[in-house]
Design a protein that fits this description.
It is built from four helices and 13 strands. The chain is α+β, with helices and mostly antiparallel strands.
Length: 227
Amino acid sequence: MALSFDPQKLPVVAVDDHLPALTAAVLRSDDVRRRFLVPPVWTPEVKTEPRFNERAPTHASVLVALVERDELTVLLTQRTDHLNDHPGQVSFAGGRVESTDADAAATALREAHEEIGVEAAFIDVLGAMPTYTTGTGFIVTPIVALVRPGFTLNADPFEVAAVFEVPLAFLMNPANHRRHAIDVNGARREFLSMPWDGIDDQGQPRRYFIWGATAAMLRNLYRFLAA
């Protein structure tokens, strides 16, 4: 679904730097694993976006892949511009549930392999986050997993324009969470963005604009880990 506005050109109405940051020192693999083994009492901050079409709801899963570098990073993709759903946006690897998928985790693992080539042997699923419903009608289950280094990326050029990693500590610092608002088809839409200034495949500086559903699911992960 093509957007009628450019989210990167909307003004920032607030920055959430009043909330505490989660540093790399408390975002180690073992810490995150323990949090899923003994989950806290918490409430997702955002679960549903205003609907922008009448399409029947579709179940999907995404892989929130935490790569075990010197500090944890989050593996993200930039979708190609010609796709029908969320073209050009930053997203987790993932997609629609298929009838052959055993569960939400199986969907996420299958889609991650199809989209970016990461083999399941490198992935240790920790658990699922609450579903997130997008304005385009996708009911998304985020599957959080640790990913061991050594995997080979093989991105599907039809769906994926770029694959990159962002330090988890950057994304779990609300000082990097910016708020925007716009009216779309009579409905007020508020969303978060987390722009990341990274390096592209050619070694050149590039800003990756993380926003919308991806940013909202990351914000829910922050609430979960901070609870």
